[in-house]
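Hey,
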Amino acid sequence: MKKEKLIIFDTTLRDGEQSPGASMTSDEKLRIAKALEKLKVDVIEAGFAVSSPGDFASVKSIAETIKDSTVCSLSRAIIADIESSAEALSGAYSGRIHTFIATSPIHMKYKLQMNPEQVLEQAIKAVRCARNLINDVEFSLEDASRSEFDFMCRIIEGVIDAGATTINIPDTVGYGFPQEYGDIIGRLIRNIPNSDKAIFSVHCHNDLGLAVSNSLAAVMQGARQIECTINGLGERAGNAALEEVVMAVKTRKDIFPVETCIETTHIAATSRLVSSITGFPVQPNKAIVGANAFAHESGIHQDGVLKFRETYEIMSAQDIGLQTNKIVLGKLSGRAAFVARLEELGTHFKNKDALNQAFSRFKDLADKKREIYDEDLQALVSDTQLDETNGDLITLESLEVLSKTGQPPFASLTLMHKGELYDSSSGGDGPVDASFKAIEKLAKSDTQLKLYSVNAITAGTDSLGEVTVRLEKGGRIVNGQGADTDIIVASVKAYLHALNLIQNPDRLHPQLDGV
């Protein structure tokens, strides 16, 4: 018996970007969108078109580029939002407007300051407007897991009659429990007279660590679309992780009555790309895509796996694309091999200058490391791809650091800004602190350092180190990244990257209410 299709709706570029510090440039969003298309994601939520000119342009660019996935724009249940989404999606091969309004008593009373009848009227009006502009309309009941059941039935029946083709029941605050949440989905489908005219969807947050469990419980009760993100990225504790949802359905074919169209061999590469662009490292013990997900240190486990892999592995590393994790690239490798491998990883160069710069850095790295991994390549490229729309970059020209036992650390550096060189030096509590203080003597950025994180990209003392620096200024938060075999240099690069981003308001995503 043929299984029903489970639609995978990825919201990494919208809800994922609402993670503090995870904002992306239009070019970076497009790179991720192409990777998601290669992954065969059914629906890509490209952004919140009305939220900013940058987000509008990004949704428009993705809509005009992506051919094999539906491109979606989120809209509040407001006519101006919906019209903005429709305009941004006008060039899409396949487009969807996703409109929403809060339906829980607490949201309606304190946030919307509307009564249920007003909310019902506005929802139906918004869906009718959207359906007049596009054929594919999704409607979400924000904070559905805390909404009254009878009111949800009324509003869902009304918006389906108005033209909604997908109904999303979000667990907006991660409050749901699998059995309870799944039961809500099943009861809605059974009780709403016209439920057969729409696909029921779920969008679960991970505040209690139950996002994936809630999503899968809903599937067992009739939901046929799951909204998720790469690496579980998202507001607060994040969203249901795409890789976990997909591999659960694939691995437990004996349980689930559905199947996805996801090309799972691209999961690992897409995970690394999103991690590299957002600056959010994947924890080593993260399910499916963590560095330890297919690693075995216990002697008993090693013995079992060597004798028969299935003794301790319920899926293979090859299923998610890890067979290409290690590649033979080094100082003798040519440009063609370098470009080919990066294209496989979802990276394409805009012009010859960008390629030459990246290849030059690759050669420099190859002189320092005997073996170069995919993670090294992605970090190297990300390190060179600062936002090209920002022509006012501060760059590092030279750095000298003194760190000696019994003496206070001291950093001396030269920065370039608008073609001019500037020298600065400072002491500090450590070499990184001294370097950052030397930069601030010149930049006077008035920012606060919210996070400093160092991640060894691969094994070995010659590993390329990746540093993430999170800065905050006036409520705006950005992540800067830097990579180098010298951790101090990587730290300075990351700090400068963050400073360059904080100067560019278009890069900063306004975190509007969402589902």
